[in-house]
Amino acid sequence: MSQPRAERPQVPDGYGMPDDDEGMLPWSWAENQLLTAANYWFATVRPDGRPSTSPVWGIWHEGALYFDGSDQSRRMKNIAANPKVAVHLESGDNVVILEGSAATVGPPPPRDLAE
Fold first, then answer.
1. What pLDDT shows up at residue 112?
2. Where are the domains of the chain?
3. CA distances (Å), origin 79, targets 3, 36, 42, 44, 84
4. Which end is more exposed in the chain, N or C (fewer Cβ atoms within 10 Å of the end residue's Cβ)?
5. Is 2.30.110.10 the CATH classification of the domain at 40-114?
6. What DSSP letter does each residue of 12-72 carry, written as one string?
């Protein structure tokens, strides 16, 4: 799997944000934050276009975030209608934000979870 691309936030000129990659943290740092997190904030889009956020328990495993939820929950209904999501961790200091698409997968074999 290729490493995700790090991006700086878009901020107005004069905020002192560098234009280059200097000072950007490596993917290994971000992945460690994901591996040690238990809570993730999901941002999804309701069918009428309004945003929706929810805290979710999850696990980062082999380069992917796994989470569950009832197909009757607002989050899962939103994902079924539009799989585009943004996910971030609880901390406002050690920031990791993921953007992409969610997909339904079956559970991994029990031996994978036990290791």
1. 60
2. 40-114
3. 24, 25, 10, 7, 7
4. C
5. yes
6. -TTS---SSSTTPPPHHHHHHHHHH--EEEEEEE-TTS-EEEEEEEEEEETTEEEE---TT
Rounded Cα gap, residues 43 and 70, in angstroms: 16
Bridge partner list, 66: 59
Instruction: At 41, list the tokens.
Output: 């904030």
In whole angstroms, how far apart are CA 98 and each of 13, 72, 109, 110?
25, 24, 26, 27
Rounded distance between C-alpha atoms, residue 20 and residue 31, angstroms: 22
Residues in the chain: 115
DSSP state letters, 84-115: EEEEEES-SSS--EEEEE----PPPPHHHHH-
